Amino acid sequence: MYKFSGFTLAEVLITLGIIGVVAAMTIPVLIANTRSAKYRSQFKKTVSTLSQAARLSDSLYGFDYGGITQVCGNNAAEEHPDTRMSICALLNGTLTGATYYERVTELKVRKNSTFENYSIIKGDFMNGDSSRQIGNFRAYVLSDGTIVAIYKDLGVASCSLPIGSSMYDVATNMGQNMQHCVGFIDVNGTTLPNKEVTCSSGTNSLTKNDCVVKNDAQHMTDVYPIRFHDGVVEPASAAAKYVLRTAK
Question: Which residue in 128, 146, 156, 204 is a FRET match for 197, CA 20 to 30 A apart?
């Protein structure tokens, strides 16, 4: 005679229920952490790409963001740093595979079965100046789909900081030379949420260093304000700074 043993139906159902509860608790956290790591990595990569573009332009053509003397012209996509000292000429001469748009709103966002003009949900930085309307930004879409938006009047004054000063000085005492040297990076292109990153705790101040951005869908989002100056690109908000600082 053989004796068979196994689980009862009740035991199986209880086990499956426990697994379901654990999965419901952990899967959202895993998804949030994965999304956060992707956003951080892409932001860091794009900042590095734009900073390298400035240094390459300085080496090849003799000017970086601090040496820009002209705004982008009517044929911005055709400008070249050999003949024009604009940010469009700089990026045209140093970026490979990027596509220029006169206005970032020319990009289309798919929502359900329709397409709408690109827009963003603003946070503290983009709402902090009335000139930062979405229609005031030009755009480059990089070969990986990342959007780099540039304020349309960048070039009316040099994007350069005095020796010994920093972005934190700009935050507390905005110089005339830096007020137009702004932009933003949308790390996943036109894909939603198209929302400016915000602090989940602390203040959105570059001078206080108390901003923290949680890995949740409300705060860890895909749009990061930046400033162009000299040979680098840096975060322009405390939230963007936190994300870049904690990126691996």
Answer: 156
Cα 54–78–227 angle (5° rounding)? Answer: 30
What are the phi and psi torsion angles at 202 (to 5°)?
Answer: 80, -170
Contact assessment for residue 30 and residue 230, using Cβ atoms and an 8 Å cutoff: no
Average pLDDT over residues 120-141: 93
Q: Specify whether the CB–CB gap between 146 and 42 falls below 8 A.
A: yes
Residue 97 phi/psi, 5-degree rounding, is 80, 10
Give 114's strand partners.
111
pLDDT in tens, 215-242: 999 999 999 999 999 999 999 999 999 9
pTM of the model: 0.87
- Find out whether 181 and 65 touch, Cβ atoms under 8 Å: yes
53 strand-pairing partners: none
Length of the chain: 248
